[in-house]
Amino acid sequence: MRRALILSNRKLPARLTPVVFAFYMSAIMAALMCLIITAVNQGFDQHYLLSAFHAYEVAMPSAFICVMLVRPLVMKLVAGTVAEN
């Protein structure tokens, strides 16, 4: 119980939800894409993970910036595509 209370005090404010979402989404997608593209380009050799990690160093910040930039457009596309209840 105490641990849950301590962790809940360390949470970010709700107003940062879009930024936190963008961070997690870009981190996961960049990692998956780096792993896939590295495998396609060089195959699975002894340097595979290191090469994928080096690609991730560039891809993750780039993906985060892109997600933050395109988020307003995506929100409009979703609103125009999904019916309200």
Characterization of this structure:
It is a single chain. The chain is mostly helical. The protein has one domain (12-81). It contains 3 helices and no strands. The longest helix has 34 residues, at 48-81. It is extended and about 50 Å long. The N and C termini lie far apart (37 Å).
Protein topology:
Layout: H1 2-9, H2 17-42, H3 48-81
Helix pairs in contact: 2-3
Helicity level = over 70%
The low-confidence runs, each spanning 5 or more residues with pLDDT under 50, are none
Distance between the termini: 37 Å
| Major sheet characteristics | none
Number of domains: 1
Strand content bin: under 5%
Global morphology: extended
Tell me the series of helices and strands, N- to C-terminal.
Answer: HHH
- Count up the helices: 3
* Structural category: mainly alpha
Q: Report the C-alpha radius of gyration, rounded.
A: 18 Å
Mean pLDDT, rounded to whole units? Answer: 91
Topology, number of strands: 0
Pick out its properties.
80% helix, 85 residues, mainly alpha
Question: What's the quick description here?
Answer:
The protein is 80% helix and 0% strand. It is mostly helical and 85 residues long. The mean pLDDT is 91.
